[in-house]
Design goal:
The chain has 222 residues and is of the alpha/beta class. The protein has a single domain, classed as L-arginine/glycine Amidinotransferase, Chain A (5-stranded Propeller). It is built from eight helices and 15 strands. The strands form five sheets. It has a three-stranded mixed sheet, with helices on one face. Strands 2-3-4 form a three-stranded mixed sheet. A three-stranded mixed sheet has the order 5-6-7, with helices on both faces. It is globular, with a radius of gyration of 16 Å. The termini are close together.
């Protein structure tokens, strides 16, 4: 599995800007061709430029898996339509919370979601995502679980304050082994500096060698 360093608009917080599953990656309109090339080559997906709510922070606003990409209610109709027109299954999740990438942690088996979501919202998410299990919870006492970890169908990396009991429960939930780590020279909020799928990973350019080794082990990158 390939792995490479990346910056977007000169910023190592690449997870703020990019959404990816195992089929497609959405990158900000106007990003450098080098960014699109690295995303395509390392994640082995089709790369599509997009905006959500007129913004380039796609990784903050979007969440999903191979079944669906969820966008917040503030997304514009034309933005959703343009993505659906190219064959993507993008649906609007109607909630007061709009930073879906920060509050939802998802792979193709399960989802861990923001604890303040209503039971109705959780039911809708379960139906849309097509996952076996969906639970409310926190990671290292952090409610914005999507920002605290990155999960694929092969492994996961989570906030360094995640304890052993939490790691065990997360592994059982998602059906993969997880490990703790950091990105971009000590940043604990993993999602800000890591974009990964089953094929590969991209890391913020400030990520150190020891951090990379931990990431590769956690994501089960041979």
């Amino acid at each position: 599995m390939p792995l490479d360093r990346l910056r977007v608009f000169g910023n190592p917080n690449i997870g703020v800007y990019i959404f990816a599953n195992n089929k497609v990656a959405l990158v900000p309109e106007g990003c450098d061709p080098e960014v699109k090339e690295k995303v395509r080559d390392n994640l082995d997906v089709e790369v599509i430029e997009a905006r959500i709510a007129g913004s380039v922070i796609l990784g903050v606003f979007l969440a999903g898996n191979d079944n669906v990409i969820l966008a917040p209610k503030i997304a514009r109709d034309e933005e959703i339509e343009s993505l659906n027109e190219v064959g993507l299954n993008v649906k609007v999740f109607h909630s007061v919370y709009t930073a879906l990438g920060n509050i939802l942690l998802i792979n193709n088996k399960a989802a861990l979601v923001y604890p303040d979501l209503t039971d109705r919202e959780v039911k809708i998410l379960s139906e849309e995502l097509g996952v076996e299990t969906i639970v409310k919870g926190t990671i290292a006492r952090i409610p914005t679980v999507g920002s605290a970890a990155v999960i694929t169908d092969k492994g996961g990396l989570t906030h360094p304050d995640t304890n052993e009991d939490e790691l065990r429960k997360l592994s059982e939930l998602f059906g993969v082994n997880l490990d703790i780590g950091t990105v971009n020279f000590g940043v604990a909020f993993i999602r800000t500096g890591l974009v990964a799928n089953n094929h590969g990973a991209l890391i913020g350019e400030k990520t150190t060698g020891p951090e990379i080794m931990r990431i590769m082990k956690a994501l089960n990158m041979g």
